[in-house]
Write a structure and sequence with these properties.
Layout: H1 4-18, E1 23-28, H2 39-46, E2 50-57, E3 60-66, E4 70-74, E5 79-85, E6 94-100, E7 104-110, E8 116-120, H3 123-129, H4 143-151, H5 157-162, H6 172-182, H7 195-214, E9 249-253, E10 256-260
Antiparallel strand pairs: 1-6, 2-3, 3-4, 4-8, 5-7, 6-7, 9-10
Helix pairs in contact: 1-7, 6-7
The structure holds zinc ion (ZN).
Length: about 270
């Protein structure tokens, strides 16, 4: 399921393959994925516009258009982008198809149809309207900003990391890795985190997400591409901790399953 690193990789892919191209027409195969706009209005809004560049906030990808406006996308559980050139038929599960005037194409694919696509006049007001916290990789999101996020919330640290209104971009998968790398048990209460643990956690948020982007995360996360020290390579029943070799344990968080090492991840610390 696409989280911050995956969406960042989608954005770079879109910039690499579609930047500067002019849209000839748009086909909406599944109008249920459109948010706040009809298929006809969406297609009319995009015809003739040029793709300038993309930006990301949390799990949202925003594409700047010329002469004006933005296209935004959320990838839900199974969303992805696919570019192709020439007459090749569209990829499976294409929900929205963009044909460019120069014979290139872009598909927004989504097997399970969770996710959304829409248009916005302005990126900053769109992000504000989604009630998102700071983007986890925003350079302005520093240790002091993280401390502010922690002090404003109660409950366990795993749920906070996944709460998009507190901090945008991290989901079930990467919160497991961040907590593992920081050596913190997922059920640790926020107010039980010591100064050292908070700082370790902050450093690992940045390091884990940046490493995953460098490794080329994406729709089909290729865990073999991640460093051997990552828990994600062992994130399954019967998997072994890459640090101590213990069998990984699971815990439930509002319906989501967390994986952790009962030996290396200690409450509080
Ligand atoms: Zn361990």
């Amino acid at each position: 399921m696409p989280e911050l690193p995956d969406v960042e990789v989608f954005g770079r892919y879109l910039d690499r393959t579609c930047k500067g191209r002019v849209i000839r027409c748009v086909t909406v195969n599944d109008p249920r994925l459109l948010s706040g706009i009809s298929s006809e209005a969406f297609a009319a809004r995009l015809e003739g516009v040029r793709i300038l560049s993309s930006m990301r906030h949390g799990k949202y990808l925003l594409v700047r258009l010329a002469p004006a406006g933005w296209l935004w996308m959320h990838f839900g559980m199974t969303g992805a982008l696919r570019h192709w050139e020439g007459g090749e038929t569209e990829p499976p599960y294409t929900r929205i198809r963009v044909d460019f005037v120069d014979g290139h194409h872009l598909a927004y694919t989504n097997l399970r149809r969770l996710g959304a696509v829409g248009c916005a006049e302005d990126a900053a007001s769109f992000i504000a309207a989604q009630h998102l916290g700071p983007d986890a990789l925003d350079p302005h999101f520093d240790l002091a900003a993280f401390e502010r996020v922690l002090s404003a919330r109660k409950g366990d640290i795993k749920s906070l990391l996944m709460d998009q209104s507190a901090l945008a971009g991290i989901g079930n998968i990467y919160s497991d890795e961040i907590l593992f790398q920081a050596g913190i048990h997922p059920k640790t209460k926020i107010d039980r985190l010591g100064v050292d643990a908070r700082e370790r956690l902050f450093r690992q948020i940045k390091r884990v997400l940046e490493t995953a982007i460098e490794c080329g995360s994406g729709a089909e996360l290729n865990t073999d591409a991640l460093p051997r020290s990552f828990l994600l390579r062992q994130r399954r029943k019967g998997g072994h901790c890459p640090r101590c070799g213990d069998v990984v344990a699971t815990a439930k968080f509002s319906g989501r399953t967390a994986y952790y090492c009962p030996h290396c991840q200690i409450e509080g610390s």
